[in-house]
Amino acid sequence: MLPSDEIDFYLKYLNKCRKSYSELKNDEDAQIYIPKTWKMFHTNEDNVENLNEESFIKTTMILNELTRII
Description:
Blueprint: H1 4-17, H2 21-25, H3 36-40, H4 53-69
């Protein structure tokens, strides 16, 4: 899950370069295109202060849908 601005930026780059995330994460020049949210995973910045409302809303929608179909 990514904030809209991060996914828009990342998708534009992916469409242009045609590389997978696995290829990008090993490419020094492409690091600016890796979403900030993904870079924060499992670091000291992966904390409640960096969560955003959009993610909570989307997660709630997904969980509600899952409970409906399960």
